[in-house]
Amino acid sequence: MPDLDELVKLLDQVEQEQQGLRGKHAHLMRSIVHKAGGVNQAAELLGLDPKTVRARQRAAGLALVLYRGSNTAKVDLDGRVYGETGLDEASEAQREADRKWFNLARTNEGLLHLVVYVADGRLVRARDVEGKWEWNEDGKAALPVGPPLTSAELAQKYPTFPFAIGHELPMVRGKIREYVTL
Fold this sequence. Notes:
By secondary structure, the protein is an alpha+beta fold. Helices cover 36% and strands 22% of the residues. A five-stranded mixed sheet has the order 8-5-4-1-9, covered by helices on one side. It has a two-stranded antiparallel sheet with strand order 2-3. Strands 6-7 form a two-stranded antiparallel sheet.
């Protein structure tokens, strides 16, 4: 019988294999949807509900797109600035503003791989989500984000992500975030 450390390593290995298979499955599902002419047509072909098809398309991972304005400074009750701080994107203050606190579904914790930030209608920054999420007593998440990705890094790591740093993404009134399938 393997010891506890060996079991933990085996579990990690299986989880990595599962993520790889989920990625392949989602890629195949997206290809089927594309070739079938849409989600409804793919659902009919596969004998599935369209909602199931959409969920399986997203199984490889998601990017969270956050829409912000830079013209108003936002500060929480603890004095922490959130949104665009006006500081360098690699600054600790901007990283903290980029990672805390979001009303997100716990079910997305294993699927969210990338957060992109849109300020005043332009994609200004992207960060990997690397590790375990932190939850506060209000059920809001602090994301374990990495340093800002360059345009080349974003394109290399997420070739199916449809936008690049600097692209215009006009904000829709009332929409503060959306998910994009990777």
